[in-house]
Amino acid sequence: MHFLNLPEFDPALGVNTNNHNKFPFISSADGLFEPNADPFNYRSQFFPFKKIELDHENHFYVSEPNLQLIFQPGIAKKGTILLENINSISEEYITELKSHFYKGYQAGLGNFKEELGPTYNSLNIAHQQEMLAAFITECHEYLYFEGFAIPQALFSLGYIQANLVLSYKEYQNIKELTKQSVTELKPAEPTQSPKSKELISNTNYPKIGIKYFMSDIINLWMVLVDIHQYHPQTLIQEFKSEKEIKTLLGSIFIDLSNKRSLLPDAPHRLYELPQNYQVILNLLMHATYKLNYTYTNLKLSPYAKILKDTFSTYGGIEVDYIGSNITKKLNDAILIIQDLQDSSRAKNAVEILKKIPQYDHYFKRR
What is the largest CA-CA distance in the chain? Predict the structure, then answer.
């Protein structure tokens, strides 16, 4: 277990953003920031970090993709990084964010050996590599900037980033020294937090376990029964009853939030839906992912795969593309649901969406 002395950090959940209301929310013009779904390739000889220059003497390295984007030179002038989803970020504010991150980065450089622990130096080389591989994976999984510009959280991210850089360097140095005599080790299994939950296989399809309140997830997806009312000429009523929605959810999710499941154990199937359902499905699945993430730490990619496997509207689209573009039209989807003023299901869905901190800025403007 590592990073126990970090501010705004929980070993089970990662960097804590509960104090987000006091600080600005940062996002990209292309959508919300998502975690890196790819595992960290610590075996690669290709240096997987981007160098960020502070001045002629000071710099740091970053692998977290959202911070790479924010910290790149000239990004403020492009106007593609937004505060509260409205105003472009300023160069001065980016400098302030870098300062918070760099303070944590320097602290992480100084405490690297302490984080490895006193037993590291007593291990043989093979076990040192195993330990470093696991530590690298752990650092990589914790490195996720959601968009909340909390100084203590940025400090913690900088601290973890420095430990990832040094553990990668240490691993590569050992590998170089021993490549003639030590057989390549198998990649370490990802280190998961106690609350992490893998995909759960039920029947022949791997369903996702939902530990967030299933009653809220059901009420969120119930809006599909009324969504055709937004534009009856182009949106066909594909789901006609609440039972059909529960069957849909029971075919892709497993209820882990209740002793007695609120969902049927339904077999997976492909739903034939028109293209204009995609914007709503993106919102519902992304919201489900965000609500469940706090309890499971499961990344976005499995949810994107379910969209592709379950709805014909995603036919021919790669899973990675679905995941990277899933937030681009969230604002449009939320507007559609809010416009269903006569639908109690839509009103329930809006109240559930408001529980997601990253969606705050969509509702503040209304």
Answer: 72
Instruction: Say if CB 334 and CB 286 are below 8 A apart.
Output: no
Which residues, 6+ apart, have CB-to-CB distance to 109 below 8 Å? 162, 166
The beta strand positions in 164-264, using DSSP E, are: 200-202, 205-210, 253-255
The beta-strand segments (E) located in 109-217 are 200-202, 205-210
Token representation of residue 342: 């006569």
Q: Which residues contact 200 (CB under 8 A, 6 or more apart)?
A: 206, 207, 208, 209, 254
Count other Cβ atoms within 10 Å, centred on residue 131.
19
The residues facing 253 across adjacent strands are 208
pTM for the whole structure = 0.57
pLDDT in tens, 1-59: 788 888 778 877 788 887 777 899 998 888 788 877 677 777 766 678 888 989 878 89
